[in-house]
Specification:
The chain has about 325 residues and is an alpha/beta fold. It has 2 domains: about 1-95, no CATH class; about 105-260 and about 300-320, Isopropylmalate Dehydrogenase (3-Layer(aba) Sandwich). Helix content is about 45%, strand content about 15%. The protein has 11 helices and 10 strands. The protein has helices at about 10-15, 50-60, 65-70, 85-95, 130-145, 170-180, 210-235, 235-255, 285-300, 300-310, 315-320; strands at about 25-30, 40, 80, 105-115, 115-120, 155-160, 185-190, 205, 265-270, 275. The strands form 2 sheets. It has an 8-stranded mixed sheet with strand order 3-10-9-4-5-8-6-7, with helices on both faces. A two-stranded parallel sheet has the order 1-2. Strand 6 (about 155-160), helix 6 (about 170-180) and strand 7 form a beta-alpha-beta unit. Helix 1 crosses helix 9. The protein is globular.
Length: about 325
């Protein structure tokens, strides 16, 4: 029932993703036309404008909470939602729960660049974070890049306002020091302007507030540029003729940059797989989000995260929690 176009696009996307190896189960009201897919009755729904924690507690029979509960109880392998992101995070924390090694789960988004994918983490789960949280986000992002994207020894970089180590706010300055000691392949600070060029490393780490703004600005810019290019092509006869010649390249570019291609983002750090899709997801985006969730299950992402986080930089994280704040940011 989540998303701007639910339930019709959700059902259509689930039907598109259904294969012998992927069995979508829908959660929603009785009488929902699912095209033959199994439906678990969930009479309530959480709106986009509701307060996340209050809504999750007040509506245990909502489709979102019921779907997360199914994963937490082992009745499903993964949950996909295009609904209220805050409520999805709250429901996942209450019903699926965090891995013991994780302080805070984080949203990991695969950003397509000219030189290969970059994992942006955190993309919106934690508006406020401490330096040690960013180290753990980096650890989870690096494991995800290795296990799912098959990137050997992924490079981690820190989003900041300049490449120099002394640039940034207090959070960035302290996180830079910890990342340099973490044992990760840390490449230092990087500016957002090189993200699509491929200069942001394999994993780009930041807090959820900054990461979400970065992601939405990126998506809006890409959409505006592609739409403007299309408008220019159809504005004249010469443009239309030229458009026919560049159509294959333009289609490939749109396919590579379109958020619907990936469908959603992993919420890393839980005891189960959770994928958060855009609120305006089309059926194609929903189908790809379901496939993304299935890949996480196939790659045993949760188990591998847990195994590797048990031995990941415990001394660095412990010292970070006990040490005094660093000097004021420049």
């Amino acid at each position: 029932m989540g998303g701007d176009q639910g339930p019709d696009e959700i059902v259509a996307g689930a039907l598109e993703a259904a294969t012998p190896g992927i069995v979508p189960v829908l959660f929603g009201p009785a009488g929902l036309d699912t095209g033959g897919l199994e439906v678990v009755e969930a009479p309530d729904a959480i709106g986009m404008d509701e307060k996340p924690v209050e809504a999750v507690r007040a509506k245990p029979r909502s489709s979102l909470v019921a779907a997360c509960r199914a994963v937490g109880e082992g009745q499903a392998a993964a949950v996909v939602s295009a609904g209220n992101t805050g409520a999805t995070l709250a429901a996942c924390l209450f019903k699926i729960r965090r891995l013991p090694e994780v302080d805070r789960p984080a949203i990991a988004v695969v950003v397509p660049s000219r030189q290969g994918p970059t994992v942006l983490v955190d993309a919106g789960a934690n508006a406020d974070a401490r330096p040690e949280h960013l180290v753990q986000f980096a650890e989870m992002g690096a494991i995800f890049a290795e296990e799912v994207l098959e990137i050997s020894r992924p490079q981690v970089r820190l989003l900041s306002i300049g490449e120099e180590p002394e640039k940034g706010n207090q959070l960035t300055l302290e996180a830079h020091q910890l990342l340099a000691q973490s044992g990760l392949r840390f490449g230092g600070n990087v500016e957002a302007r090189v993200l699509l060029e491929g200069g942001a490393g394999d994993v780009l780490v930041t807090d959820g507030f900054t990461g979400n703004i970065c992601l939405k600005l990126l998506e809006g810019t890409i959409k505006s540029l592609l739409d403007a290019l299309r408008d220019e092509i159809y504005a004249s006869t010469r443009g239309k003729v030229g458009g026919l010649l560049i159509r294959p390249a333009a289609r490939h570019l749109r396919e590579r940059l379109d958020p619907d291609t990936h469908g959603g983002a992993y919420l890393l750090g839980l005891r189960g797989i959770a994928v958060i899709a855009h609120g305006n997801s089309s059926r194609r985006a929903i189908a790809n989000a379901i496939r993304l969730a299935a890949r996480g299950v196939e790659h045993r992402l949760v188990e591998r995260l847990s195994e590797r986080l048990r031995t990941a930089t415990p001394s660095v994280l412990a010292s970070a929690r006990s040490r005094p704040p660093s000097p004021q940011a420049r």
